[in-house]
Amino acid sequence: MIRFLIRLMALAIVASLPIPLHAQKPETTEKIAKSFRVGPSGTLDINNMSGKVVVNEGGTDTIVIDALKRVRGNVGDAKDQLARTTVEMAERAGRVEVRTIYAGRNLKVSVDYTVTAPAGTTVAVRTLSGDIAITGIKGEVRADALSGNVTLTGTPAVSLAKTMSGDVAVTGVSTQGELRVSSLSGDVLVRSARARSVDADSTSGDVTLTDVTSDRVTGKALSGEISFTGPLAKGGRYQFQSQSGDVSLTLVGAAGFELDASTFSGSVRSDFPLTVPPGQPVGGQGQRKSVRGVFGDGGAQLMLRAFSGDITIGKK
Q1: Cα–Cα–Cα angle for 186, 45, 79, nearest 5°?
Q2: Which helix (H) or strand (E) holds 237?
Q3: Engineered SS bond to 268: which of 98, 108, 171, 291, CB 3.0-4.6 Å?
Q4: Whether pTM exceeds 0.90
C-alpha cells in the first residue's frame, strides 16, 4: 500500500512538470488580415474567447487587424479545429466588430489579435482567456478580461479596466468622467491619472494609486495593501479600506482635510498636525485604535479603515 502511494505521488509530480518544447505537439497556425477605412474617430469592438489582444495607435483613418489562429496537435486534427474556428470581421458606419466563433465543443484554438488604429478610435475589448494591452488610444477605452492581465498605457479616456484573474495597470489618464479599475485576483495599479472619480479594488492583491488627481477616490482591498499618492481637492471625498493590509497615503500639497481613521489590529499615524474635537479620545480599547481630527480648513474628507494593518498619512 505504501509503495502504491509513493508511486502515485511520483506520477502526480511528473504530471505537474512542464512539458519540454521538443516533446510538445507541433503548432499549426493560420493568419488572417483585414483593414477597414473608418476615419480618425471610428469604433472598434473585439470579443475574443482565448488569446491575447494588442491594440496600438497607428495611422490616420484605417484600422488594421492581424489575427493569428493557433492550435497544437496532430496536423489533421489541428486543421479541422482551425476550420471550425471562425474570425468574423465586419464594418458598418465606421464601427468595426470582431468576433471569435467556435463551431463545436472541445476546441483548443487560440486567436491572437494585433491591431493598429487611429488615435481617436473608441475601443472596447472583451476576452475570456488572454491578456489585453492597449497603447496610445485617445478615444474611450473599455477592457474586460475574465482571465488575463489588462495593461492600458497612454489611454486618457479609459473608463473601465477589469479582470477576474490577473493584474491591471492603467497609466496616463485624463478624463472628466469616471475611471473604474478592478481585479478579483491580482494587483491593481493606476499611475498619472486625472479623473472626476476613481474606483479601484482588488479582492486578492494590492491597490496602488500613484500621482492620482480626483475629487472622489475609492480604494478597496480584501487581502492586500492600499497606497495613494496625490493631492486632495477641496470638497473631495477619499475612502480607502483594507481587510488585511496597510493603508498608506502620501499627500501632495497642504490641502485641509477631515480625518476619520480606524484600525482593529494596527496603528494610525499622521504627519499632519490634527485638531481633535474636545473630549474626543485618540485610541481605543485593546489593539483597536482610531483617530478623528481636522487639518487646516478640513475641506476634504478622508475615511480610512483597516482591520489588520497600519494606517499612515504622510507628506510628500
Answers
A1: 85
A2: strand 237-244
A3: 291
A4: no
